[in-house]
Amino acid sequence: MPHGTARRGPDLAAALFVLAVGLLAAWQTAIIPPSPIYAQVGPKFVPALIAAVLLVLGAGLTIVALRRGWSQDIEELQDAAPLNLRALGLLLAGLLANLVLIEPLGFTIAASAQFVLVAAAFGSRAILRNLVIAFIVSLSAYGLFVKGLGVNIGAGVVESLIFGAPF
Amino acid sequence: MGAIEGLTLGFGHALTLSNLGWALLGCFLGTAIGVLPGIGPALTIALLLPITFSVSATGAFILFCGIFYGAMYGGSTTSILLNTPGESGSIITALEGAKMAKNGRAGPALATSAIGSFIAGTVGTIGIAFLGPIVVELALKLGPAEYFMLMVLCFVTVSAVLGGSALRGLTSLGFGLLLGLVGVDLQTGQPRLTFGVPELLDGVNVVLVAVALFAVGETLYLAWRYIEGPVEVREVGRIMMSKSDWKRSFWPWIRGAGVGFPFGVMPTGGSEMPTMLSYYMERKMVKPEFAREFGTTGAIEGVAGPEAANNAAAAGVLVPMLTLGLPTSATAAIMLSAFQSYGIQPGPMLFTSQADLVWTLIASLFIANVMLVVLNLPLVGLWARILKIPQPQLYAGILVFATIGTYGISNSVIDLVLLYGIGIIAMFMRRFDFPVAPVIIGMILGPMAEQAMRQALTISQGDWTVFVTRPISLVILLIAVTALIGPRLYAAWLRRLA
Question: What is the pTM (predicted TM-score) of this model?
Answer without folding.
Answer: 0.89
